[in-house]
Amino acid sequence: MTDMRTPDLTAAVELARLAPSVHNTQPWRFRVTNGALELYADRDRQLQVLDPEGRQLVMSCGTALFHARLALRLQGFDADVTAGDEIYGDFLARLQPRAGAPATPEERSLGAAATNRHTQREPFTDKQVADDTLKAISLAVEGEGAWVRLLSGPNEQLPVIVLLSHADELEDRDEAYREEVSEWTKRPESARDGIPAGVIPRGVRSRMSNLPVRDFALEGTSPEGIADQGVVERPLVTVIGTGGDALDDWLTAGQALAHLLLRAVVDGVQASPLGQVVDLPATRERLGRELGTIGFPQMVLRMGYAEPGQVTPRRELDEVLA
Ligand SMILES: Cc1cc2nc3c(=O)[nH]c(=O)nc-3n(C[C@H](O)[C@H](O)[C@H](O)COP(=O)(O)O)c2cc1C
């Protein structure tokens, strides 16, 4: 029997536009053609200094792709996804919906998380991420076709700590990088993109943590910040990677990242990417070697318990759907 229902592709874009993206650039455009949803890169929104290859742009579009697929699952549709084949092209993927099983309780929880997940860059508590959550986030990432490494203790985290600090310092000294950060942290409100001042933590390089979050405030080390620190966090470090390093791998990594972030939120676990270490080709490559992984690290995150982060803006539906 054929299923005569029609998927609501506009609802899929509604959830997709809430996805996380590097510097909240929201570098995606959607088009509906012949009952399918097409995803395009908006290269005008590419970070030319931080991301000259467009890898993190494509990963960001991959997070939106996961949200779109999830929205279709909530309507009882599966989607056949065909990735584009031009690594620097605009066409990224086509989602062809087909009738599937009703949404599971797990998918409904992820759907609820997609509407209220926010990056949390403030310190976490000293509680370590629970074993059940470690299993759930591994399944989430691997289910998307990516690999994951979960690094719990300081010894295991050492290569990340060293390479992250190095990358963070190199970027801090790069004037073009700093200008680009400024551009995306000082956006007019009407743009509904970028990272607003209200969500940017201060004094991040003075924290009692081995894992510096990106210094969006561009303020460097402020020694007076150290005295105020209370609990020392013990975050989980998560590395997401893929076997290859082509367009479809970047899309896979983005979908794995989105699935991981939502799965974490379902368990009350917050996260923030530590992108510095994978921004620079040298530290990214070195990280892969140090971890002894096969393939390519695509993103590194810190995860732990805290209040949810704060809301950031998103562009309206008609700005992203042609
Ligand atoms: C590919 C990618 C890379 C990111 N890199 C960083 C990062 O290095 N540091 C950071 O604090 N946040 C990073 N983020 C988080 C974004 O800044 C965040 O998703 C965006 O500002 C929207 O905010 P929200 O996640 O709270 O919705 C990254 C997100 C993505 C998808």
What's this entry about, in short?
This protein has 322 residues and is α+β, with helices and mostly antiparallel strands.
Kindly describe this structure:
- It is a single chain.
- The protein is an alpha+beta fold and 322 residues long.
- The protein folds into two domains: 9-117 and 314-320, NADH Oxidase, CATH 3.40.109.10; 131-305, NADH Oxidase (3-Layer(aba) Sandwich), CATH 3.40.109.10.
- The protein has ten helices and eight strands.
- The strands form two sheets. The protein has a four-stranded antiparallel β-sheet with strand order 1-2-4-3, with helices on one face. Strands 5-6-8-7 form a four-stranded antiparallel β-sheet, sandwiched between helices.
- Helix 3 crosses helix 7 (247-266).
- The protein is globular, with a radius of gyration of 19 Å.
- It binds flavin mononucleotide.
- Flavin mononucleotide (FMN) binds next to helix 2 and strand 7.
Number of domains: 2
Distance between the termini: 33 Å
Strand content: 15-25%
Estimated helix fraction: 25-40%
CATH secondary-structure class of the largest domain: Alpha Beta
Largest sheet: 4 strands, antiparallel
- Oligomeric nature of the chains: single chain
Query: Whole-number radius of gyration?
Result: 19 Å
Query: What overall form do the CA principal axes indicate?
Result: globular
CATH architecture of the largest domain: 3-Layer(aba) Sandwich
Bound molecules: flavin mononucleotide
Classify the secondary structure makeup into a structural class: alpha+beta
What is the ordering of alpha helices and beta strands?
HEEHEEHHEHHEHEHHEH
**Mean pLDDT over all positions:** 95
The low-confidence runs, each spanning 5 or more residues with pLDDT under 50, are none
Strand order of the largest sheet: 1-2-4-3
Fourth-level CATH superfamily of the largest domain: NADH Oxidase
